[in-house]
Amino acid sequence: MVRILHGADFHLDSAYGALGEEQARARRQESRELVRRMVEYANEQGAQVMLLAGDLFDSDEFFSQTGEDLALALSRFEGKVFIAPGNHDFCAPGSAYDRILWPENVHVFRADKLERVDLSDLQCSVWGAGFTAPSVNDGSVLRGFAAPDDGWTHLLVLHGDVGVRDSRYRPLTEEQLAATGVDYAALGHQHTFSGVHRLGKTAWAYCGCMEGRGFDELGEKGVLCGTVSPGRADLRFVPMGTRRYEILNVDVTDSQPLAAISGALPRDTEKDIYRIILTGETETPVRLDWLQQELADRFYALELRDQTRMKQDLWAKCGEDSLRGLFLQELRKKYDAAADEAARKKIEQAVRFGLAAMDNREM
Predict the structure, then answer these.
(1) Residues 286 and 209 occupy one common structural domain
(2) Do 36 and 143 belong to one domain?
(3) N or C: the chain end with fewer CB closer than 10 Å?
């Protein structure tokens, strides 16, 4: 049995272009500190092997201090680290993997074909390959590969795109993964935790990125940690991110926008980055600047979007000699005959849906 930690897609030194200069600089520093925290956690859990599945850097343009901090953090891991470079940090002459002085416990898979490293004390073999260019248009790296059935634990670390046939980022298939016969395939590239899947003997997963960088990377981000043995993988997702990106839709119909937002927010949002989308009908235009000022202290960063519409008299054209008028006339009869307020609310909603359909617009 081997205790592992699986991480990927750190994207160190990302631009964080949607944030202000000071916040972007702070976010880059927080991302560097995440690596140190990850190593500390791995040591606390007694991890023996760390599998890092690529895109550790966002590009080949990174601060030298970032590379030095990464190498220093990994040197403090009490086991062996294996890195499979991805499309953002591909391994080529003069790339990050040539410019950084890696500690002795770090092994980088520098070729685009599978390499095997044996850890005899653990009766474990680690297989991996790296990107050597910013795109890899085929998944031939796994073609014909099958790990030996020798009683050892076999691990695979790889950056690639499972189930995306035309991907430029090493397309892989589930059939290829199943045919490897490895006990666990640690994958990178997709930024959302996939869950741990099993294909025959082989378990595989994307751990996702370790820190969200935009509103396309929502919620908790982290790593996988646990044990792998022949034919078995017991892994759990461990949140690591410092801050979360979240999108919240708030209907402000019949409410003051500030009160509606406050009522919809969860607790403890001060460290997170939110996009709040206001919907529904209002009597007067929403004052986004004022709302931004009132809410700013409740978030690390906040983006407000106004998708409200001005409230209209639902029955304004009731009885008009048109399809709209006849539609409203029929529903007005039902409205006036409704037994209670709840029934009238449902009829009003039906009117809104009907009018939106006639106008070819969203509710």
Answers:
(1) no
(2) yes
(3) C
Place of tokens 């990927």: 8
Domain encompassing residue 249: 245-310
178 and 215 housed in the same domain: yes
Q: Judge if 18 and 155 occupy the same domain.
A: yes
Instruction: Please tell me whether residues 160 and 46 are part of one structural domain.
Output: yes
Q: Is residue 346 in a domain?
A: no
In tens digits, the chain (363 residues) has pLDDT values of: 999 999 999 999 998 888 889 999 999 999 999 999 999 999 999 999 999 999 999 988 788 889 999 999 999 999 999 999 999 999 999 888 999 999 999 999 999 999 999 999 999 999 999 999 999 988 899 999 999 999 999 999 999 999 888 899 999 999 999 999 999 999 999 999 999 999 999 999 999 999 999 999 999 999 999 999 999 999 999 999 999 999 999 999 888 999 999 999 999 999 999 999 999 988 788 999 999 999 999 999 999 999 998 776 777 778 788 888 888 888 888 888 888 888 888 888 888 888 888 877 666
Residue 215: CATH number of its domain: 3.60.21.10
* Structure-token pair, residue 53: 């599945």
- Domain identity same for 268 and 226: no
Cβ contact 139:176 at 8 Å: yes
Half-sphere exposure of 134 (CA within 13 A, CB side): 5
Whether 210 is covered by a domain: the verdict is: yes
Task: Report residue 143: phi and psi, to 5°.
Answer: -65, 125
Q: How far apart are CA 327 and CA 171, in angstroms?
A: 52
Q: In 10 A of CB 140, how many CB atoms?
A: 14
Tokens of 102: 């890696």
The CA-atom distances, in angstroms, between 359 and each of 57, 148, 362 are 48, 64, 9
Four-point Cα dihedral 103, 187, 54, 57, nearest 10: -120
Number of domains in the chain: 2
In the DSSP assignment, the letter for residue 36 is: H
